[in-house]
Amino acid sequence: MLLPKVRLKMIVGYARVSARDQDFAGQVADLEAGGCVKIYREKISGAKTDRPELGKLMRRLEEGDTVIVCRLDRLARSTRDLLNLLDQIEWRAQLVAHAGDELRLVLARQR
Is 78 assigned a catalytic role? Predict the structure, then answer.
């Protein structure tokens, strides 16, 4: 008897630095401590609209997944940018603030 494939909900992180001489160490440590099983890393200005690793993260998200960023400015430059990101993937996000600047986006399908 074959059992149906069940995908477990994932906790993924996104780390971004703007300058080539900056490193991810602090962000990655915080994301690992937050339980991330996959961390997407990117060295690119937040002003850039084409961020390949963020694009990968967005395409791989499924209902119930959690995205963790250390600081909101690592994910989006403004509230409008954040809303545009969420609109692109047609999900509704529940924002839950945690200790420090960590932010969790719990994604659920729009109805």
Answer: no
